[in-house]
């Protein structure tokens, strides 16, 4: 395979809308990035991160000395949890405003980086709050510079314009997408990800798989989003088992991280639809659910629902998982079953009942999918009409 010809220790630049430094050791590029900020007159930043991963990963051992060497003033918000809330964003934004931060550095997976993106907006719109941002009561056109130091191989948020947060009192988990949310620079260093445990490794990777499943099959899918999807699935099938079996396998981490970045670019172009629109209510109601595992629980039912409309595309994209498909609508149930078997084989075994949901919860979940701000936009991109009956059937088949 051609992957053996690539030196994972060689850092290269992955260019999409922003510049991403990719490869083992790319965390050291933070000094170059900070020098760019300093040359722009920015020497005061807020770091937004989770409770401990920024230290456990080794990222802080490089970032802190670089900040101090270059004379940066910095504040730290390290209270971002899984499925971050608008309250966390407002807390971080308050610190950033009070300390005079002019840029935001997010260190973590999707939750800290999405929070950092949101804080960057609120540093520019000082009269607004996170609820107003996520209920789309204003449309931001600017944000403070965003630097994303990625610690997982799943969300792709370091290369795209999306962010997600939960409004807890309403059980809403909207997604926003604005050009001002693109990070100026991102760092994708697989050596920072060897501390991900088995569950996290599986969850974040299944998130990337769902990104491309949707991006390749939306109403606005393009050859570009399909191309990214094909390679993403191939790499996930090849390297996820290796990373699960050996967390320190840097080659496996490298290619899963590359797959995640491709998936982020894919859905930045092709957008998302049913799986994400239906998972957001799950982890809004039960924030302890890992987003990727929630997606894995409903993916087979989504595949079954959409396959007849996009059979040729999914037959191609899913060939590493289900070889020999002919791209016929009649294959839908077979493909869904094989996808579920593959998920179970790699350790993604939970269904909705395992998360504590019952079929009595379905009407509430359907309502949230239909009423949560922004999810209507995802549903409108689905290759089948996302009626309440279709949504309810997907949930019911995912127990």
UniProtKB/TrEMBL annotation:
Taxonomically, the superkingdom here is: Bacteria
Tell me if Oxidoreductase is a UniProt keyword of this record: yes
Fe-containing alcohol dehydrogenase-like C-terminal domain location = 201-398
Tell me the Gene3D superfamilies matching this sequence: 3.40.50.1970, Dehydroquinate synthase-like - alpha domain
Keyword annotations for this protein, in alphabetical order, are: Oxidoreductase
Keyword match S-adenosyl-L-methionine = no
Where does the Alcohol dehydrogenase iron-type/glycerol dehydrogenase GldA domain lie? 19-190
Q: Which family does it belong to?
A: Belongs to the iron-containing alcohol dehydrogenase family.
Q: What is this protein called?
A: Alcohol dehydrogenase, class IV
